[in-house]
């Protein structure tokens, strides 16, 4: 018996060393946004290991992190609500977001006193609201000074959560950040070695490569994993991060649960790269940037209008078209291919933006989770 146990132990250790990444628990994460008005209690948290509650704000006067009073109850009950369906799910309070003012983040990060206000208030808010971690969504640091200050902020933030944990005896807060798809953002480099050493992981925002508001003369894959014609793709970004010194096991690949709708110049020309005339308008497209959630694409175009749907495996994107409306988006095939890529590449996992975009049966999040297993 003892010898059998010993043999088993040796075998386990051997296998562990053979393939250490197999022992790492994958991150299967999702952001919930208070803007979505999607009920927190309707999140199928069994499909996730981590859920991000978005967004807390940065006050540009006090440099403290705050929660909008209208969201206070949703945020303070977020953890207990999502743990009803999955007691093991971990939650993080996400700060900032695409609609926040990047100038305020730059100003905060530039001075020791304002960094301290930010850091101390973030930890206090995470603890008082029952979150397991904090996530920074500064979109985006713009200058080399911003990038250097971001590095200082992250170093001080990690030291502060470590010290808080040892002085209170609580489990250390998780620290993550959502960053650009590439380690180079608008020709400025993220402070990669600090990012690697101070964060638990980075959420790589591998989407919004093409959209009708900024690539308006032809259709394109909004979040392609590959792009034969440019460096704007998920895999090119991940390779840039790795080439700059990031480690695979601290990268989590972003999957968008939305697409973008273009207006075709000619309904008969409906491939990727077909001539377009800006964003689609009219029924079904209510956003001002042409974005549309996966469930609306299904309801209004694929099931509703009988749009033809196709998959392009060379870029890893789905698209559908009906009349002169053309939508590039992620469906079951592209989600599965991206998750296979992430796992094969040795990344830590994936996240979705955002959980409210999935269909009523969680088909995309189910696909992602099952593909990883
Ligand atoms: C600070 O934020 C408030 C509220 O968002 C905004 O109205 C104001 O313009 C900002 N002030 C500065 C100096 O950024
Ligand atoms: C962002 O903040 C800066 C200063 O902090 C302010 O000048 C600017 O107006 C703000 N922008 C928006 C869109 O609120
Ligand atoms: C496309 O973008 C260009 C440059 O921003 C702009 O001048 C043009 O009006 C846009 N066209 C459409 C159809 O949105
Ligand atoms: C997108 O472009 C339209 C005009 O075509 C404009 O009204 C809208 O504000 C733009 N949205 C964003 C998010 O840039």
The largest sheet, given as strand count, sense and whether it forms a barrel, is: 8 strands, parallel, barrel
Contiguous helical run count: 11
Task: Name the quaternary structure.
Answer: single chain
Shape: globular
Query: Can you identify the CATH superfamily of the largest domain?
Result: Glycosidases
CATH fold naming of the largest domain: TIM Barrel
Can you count the beta strands?
A: 17
CATH class annotation of the largest domain: Alpha Beta
Ligands in the model, by name, code or SMILES, are: 2-acetamido-2-deoxy-beta-D-glucopyranose
How far is the N terminus from the C terminus? 32 Å
Return Rg in Å. 21 Å
CATH architectural label of the largest domain: Alpha-Beta Barrel
Approximate strand percentage = 15-25%
**What is the element string, with H for helices and E for strands?**
HEEEHHEHHEHEEEHEHEEEEHEEEHEH
Q: Can you give the mean pLDDT?
A: 94
Q: Return the structural class.
A: alpha/beta
Please give a handful of descriptors for the protein shown.
eight-stranded parallel beta barrel, 2 domains, Chitinase A, domain 3, 17 strands, 11 helices, binds 2-acetamido-2-deoxy-beta-D-glucopyranose, six-stranded antiparallel sheet, TIM Barrel, alpha/beta, 373 residues, 34% helix
Briefly, what is this?
34% of the residues lie in helices and 23% in strands.
Describe the 3D structure.
With 373 residues, this protein is of the alpha/beta class. The protein folds into 2 domains: 20-256 and 331-372, Alpha-Beta Barrel (TIM Barrel); 263-325, Roll (Chitinase A, domain 3), CATH 3.10.50. Helix content is 34%, strand content 23%. The protein contains 11 helices and 17 strands. It has an 8-stranded parallel beta barrel, surrounded by 7 helices. Strands 11, 12, 13, 14, 15 and 16 form a 6-stranded antiparallel beta sheet that branches. A hairpin with a 2-residue loop joins β7 and β8. The chain is globular, with a radius of gyration of 21 Å. 45% of the residues are buried. Residues 26-373 form the GH18 domain. One of its GO terms (biological process) is chitin catabolic process.
């Amino acid at each position: 018996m003892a010898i059998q146990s010993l043999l088993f132990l040796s075998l386990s250790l051997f296998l562990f060393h053979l393939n250490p990444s197999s022992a790492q628990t994958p991150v299967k994460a999702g952001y919930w946004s208070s803007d979505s008005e999607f009920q927190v209690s309707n999140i199928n948290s069994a499909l996730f290991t981590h859920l991000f509650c978005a967004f807390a704000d940065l006050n540009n006067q006090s440099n403290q992190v705050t929660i909008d009073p209208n969201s206070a109850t949703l945020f303070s009950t977020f953890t207990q609500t999502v743990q009803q369906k999955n007691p093991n799910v971990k939650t993080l309070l996400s700060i900032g977001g695409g609609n926040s003012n990047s100038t305020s983040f730059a100003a905060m990060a530039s001075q020791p006193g304002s960094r301290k206000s930010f850091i101390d208030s973030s930890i206090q808010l995470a603890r008082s609201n029952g979150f397991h971690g904090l996530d920074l969504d500064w979109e985006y640091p713009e200058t080399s000074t911003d990038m250097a200050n971001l590095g200082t902020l992250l170093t001080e933030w990690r030291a502060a959560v470590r010290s808080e944990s040892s002085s209170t005896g609580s489990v250390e807060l998780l620290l993550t950040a959502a960053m650009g798809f590439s380690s180079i953002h608008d020709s400025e480099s993220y402070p990669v070695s600090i990012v690697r050493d101070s964060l638990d992981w980075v959420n790589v925002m591998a989407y919004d490569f093409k959209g009708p508001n900024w690539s308006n003369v032809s259709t394109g894959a909004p979040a392609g994993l590959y792009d034969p014609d440019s460096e704007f793709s998920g895999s090119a970004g991940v390779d840039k991060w790795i080439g700059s010194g990031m480690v695979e096991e601290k990268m989590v690949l972003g999957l968008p649960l939305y697409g973008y709708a273009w207006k075709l110049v000619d309904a008969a020309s409906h491939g990727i790269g077909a001539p377009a005339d800006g964003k689609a308008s009219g029924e079904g497209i209510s956003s001002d940037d042409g974005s549309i959630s996966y469930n609306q694409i299904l309801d209004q175009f694929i099931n509703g209008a009988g749009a033809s749907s196709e998959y392009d495996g060379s870029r890893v994107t789905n698209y559908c078209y009906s009349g002169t409306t053309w939508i590039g988006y992620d469906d079951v095939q592209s989600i599965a291919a991206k998750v296979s890529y992430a796992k094969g590449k040795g990344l830590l996992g994936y996240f979705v933006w955002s959980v409210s975009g999935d269909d009523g049966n969680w088909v995309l999040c189910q696909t992602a989770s099952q593909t990883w297993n």
